[in-house]
Design goal:
Elements lengths: L3 H6 L6 E6 L5 E7 L2 H7 L9 H9 L2 E6 L3 H15 L6 E2 L7 E4 L8 E4 L8 E3 L5 H15 L19 H4 L13 H15 L4 H16 L3 H20 L1 E2 L7 E9 L2 E10 L2 E11 L6 H15 L6 E4 L6 H12 L4 E3 L4 H31 L1 H10 L7 E10 L2 E11 L2 E2 L5 E4 L8 H25 L15 E4 L3 H14 L5 E6 L5 E6 L2 E3 L6 H29 L12 H11 L2 H6 L2 H5 L6 H11 L1
Parallel strand pairs: 9-12, 12-13, 14-18, 18-19
Antiparallel strand pairs: 1-2, 1-3, 4-11, 5-6, 5-7, 8-11, 9-10, 10-11, 14-15, 15-16, 15-17, 19-20, 20-21
Length: 618
């Protein structure tokens, strides 16, 4: 038994990280402290004004442990690592785990390339970004290669110059073919320098040059060339317009603000690179109940910059954070040069922070409305169905369907919807074992019997081991059983449930002559339902999903049956030996017509296996 009083006395007056565990040894919370003794003891004192989240967590603490560090900075880094690894329930967590693309220019090579990269390495290449759109990065790289005719291959140059013929890009005029000695290193490097100027935001030289080329081609009546240059010119203008000037000092900055609502928050971040706004992104933070904007922003900064390869020189925040100096020190060491955290109070920078805050609030508002609509499609629809059928609840619905073609490969499907959403982890497929031929009622009876008998047996087994039956895959029975059909399928289900002594409401999903969902069949009558209601739409989705799942399984079985070889049924012949036989004889006919000696002559086929093959085929 963990002795709290004794363990609290042992806490050192040192910086470090503390870890709270519950009775199942699950990590509830990870925190850092300048003084472990004071910080950890504070959780177990009666202090007014604590948020409900903290009080709820403290009630669950069964034990705690701690790790002493040499400094507050080390504690910060360790806290980040532990939160990322364990995702504790009561820590504010950054939900998104995005990686951003960079444009990489291999300037260390004699003939550099422009590449797409998801990480920034210390490899002497020049990196531009990060950008928020991978598609825009690829478009920009394609444009640069077209503009400056740079190579896209991975040949080792100048070692491999002349070793192979130039690729297609040379023949269509999009590469200068340094691989064939078509351009000197100095001239190629000059083109690379222009590409770097473009990436730095200096678009005027290329715009001027392309405009002159287009005019010359037009005057010389080379209209196809003029149209091609015009398209390039428009592409350059499009890229230039996306790079909106936001600051005049040309520095790299991230602008961060948040909007908080009950349990969740949205953090908006603007990426400014070289004085230009290159993109923005928003992130969701969970477990923020009772947290201030400063607390949310501090958690975001710690978790976000622990995982991103690029650090700007300046981070502008909406509110003060508690550990600003320590976080600045950590970020500066990570970057290798000074990183500043600032809270702008006036001017253009404050306007940027306000804009980020406004965008965060808009995202949160939009999501609140989206969640409300989603609840209408799911929980609202479930409530409609329950009220329509006079049920207490219909939180878990299971739907079944049968699929076959003229009785071949009868299969059944079971799909599960909980609170109006598909729960694919509970989907099940059944290959019919006792029915041959196209008898959907008999197939359905087998499927339902297997489903519920399995569930009852599994529940008994778990109860015998004193294990909660909710951990079983089949033990959770539905509030409503939905059958793909009318009276016939419903009666089969009621028959199975009656034989097993189970009381579960059964409803048929009836279709019209065009195979579209028409309504519900319940208690021997077709229940009228508003076809524009969310409940009707949910029934349609469930019926379509059951049908899709059954058809998909049937299709996979047909595919396997069509690719099955007679060799598969011969003892001693597996995939490797089957391939060896097909390589040697080229066709199944040759294998059938071969002698036992010829079969034994195939590499990897022992004499006894050759005999088994011969006897099986003759």
């Amino acid at each position: 038994m963990f002795d709290f009083e004794e363990e609290l006395k042992k806490l050192p007056n040192s910086p470090g990280v503390y870890i709270m565990h519950d009775a199942n040894d699950t990590i509830l919370y990870v925190g850092k402290a300048v003084n472990l003794h004071n910080r950890v003891r504070s959780y177990f004192r009666k202090i007014r004004g604590r948020g409900p989240q903290i009080l709820k967590m403290v009630e669950q603490i069964a034990r705690f442990e701690y790790i002493v560090t040499d400094s507050e900075l080390e504690a910060l880094v360790l806290e980040n690592n532990l939160i990322k690894e364990h995702c504790p329930k009561y820590n504010t967590l950054l939900k998104d785990d995005k990686t951003y693309p960079f444009i990489k220019v291999t300037v260390q090579e004699p003939y550099p390339r422009i590449l797409f990269s998801r990480e920034m390495k210390k490899d002497k290449s020049r990196y531009f970004g990060p950008y928020t759109s991978a598609g825009a990065v690829r478009e920009t790289i394609e444009l640069l290669n077209k503009l400056f005719h740079l190579r896209t291959c991975n040949r080792n140059l100048p070692r491999d110059i002349g070793a192979e013929r130039p690729c297609l890009n040379y023949h269509i005029g999009q590469c200068m073919a340094p691989c064939a000695g078509g351009v000197s290193e100095a001239m190629y490097q000059e083109q690379v320098a222009q590409a770097l100027e473009f990436l730095n935001g200096n678009y005027q030289p290329i715009l001027k040059d392309l405009t002159a080329q287009m005019s010359a081609a037009s005057e010389e009546m080379r209209f196809e060339d003029a149209a091609r240059i015009r398209d390039l010119l428009n592409s350059v203008k499009s890229v230039a317009q996306k790079q909106k000037i936001t600051d005049t000092d040309g520095e790299d900055k991230d602008v961060i603000a948040t909007s908080i609502d009950l349990q969740d928050a949205v953090v908006q971040i603007f990426f400014i690179r070289g004085g230009k706004l290159i993109g923005r992104e928003h992130y969701y933070m969970t477990n923020v109940a009772g947290a201030t904007k400063g607390e949310v922003l501090q958690t975001f900064v710690q978790q976000f910059y622990a995982g991103t390869p690029f650090l700007p020189r300046e981070i502008m925040l909406q509110a003060e954070i508690e550990d600003q100096e320590v976080i600045e020190q950590w970020l500066s060491e990570k970057k290798g040069s000074r990183v500043y955290i600032r809270i702008p109070q006036k001017g253009v920078k404050e306007k940027l922070v306000e804009l980020a805050a406004e965008n965060a609030m808009l995202v949160l508002t939009r999501d609140r409305e989206r969640i409300k609509r989603e609840e209408g499609r799911t929980l609202g629809a479930v409530k409609e169905i329950a009220e329509l059928l006079h049920l207490d609840k219909a939180d878990r619905m299971e739907a079944f369907d049968i699929s076959n073609i003229s009785g071949f490969a009868n299969v059944g499907s079971m799909v599960v919807f909980e609170k109006g959403k598909a729960k694919k982890s509970d989907y099940r497929r059944f290959r019919i074992k006792t029915v041959s031929g196209p008898d959907d009622y008999a197939c359905m009876k087998e499927v339902l019997t297997r489903r519920f008998v399995h569930g009852m047996e599994e529940a008994q087994e778990l109860e015998g081991k004193n294990i909660d039956t909710t951990f079983g895959s089949f033990t959770k029975f539905p509030d409503l059983l939905l059958m793909d059909g009318g009276r016939g399928q419903v009666n089969i289900a009621l028959e199975v449930l009656g034989e097993l002594g189970l009381q579960i409401p059964v409803c048929g999903m009836v279709k019209d002559d065009n195979h579209r969902t028409r309504g519900l069949y319940y208690h021997n009558v077709e229940v009228p339902i508003d076809r524009h209601s969310e409940g009707f739409k949910l029934v349609t989705r469930i019926q379509d999903e059951a049908h899709r799942f059954a058809i998909e399984y049937h299709r996979s079985l047909r595919s396997k049956a069509q690719t099955k070889s007679v060799l598969d049924d011969i003892p001693g012949v597996g995939p490797a030996r089957r391939k060896a036989l097909m390589r040697h004889f080229q066709s199944m006919e040759e294998i059938v017509n071969s002698t036992q000696e010829e079969l034994a002559a195939v590499e990897g086929i022992p004499p006894q296996v050759a005999e088994a093959i011969y006897l099986a085929l003759h």
